[in-house]
Amino acid sequence: MISQEIIQEAAQRLVKAYDPLEIYIWGSYAWGTPNEDDDLNLLLVIESSSKKVYERGDKAFDSLLGLKIPTNVVVFTKQEFDKFSQDTTSSTYEIKNRGKMIYARS
Question: Which residue of 46, 49, 75, 89 lies most exposed, with the fewest beta carbons within 10 A?
Answer without folding.
Answer: 89
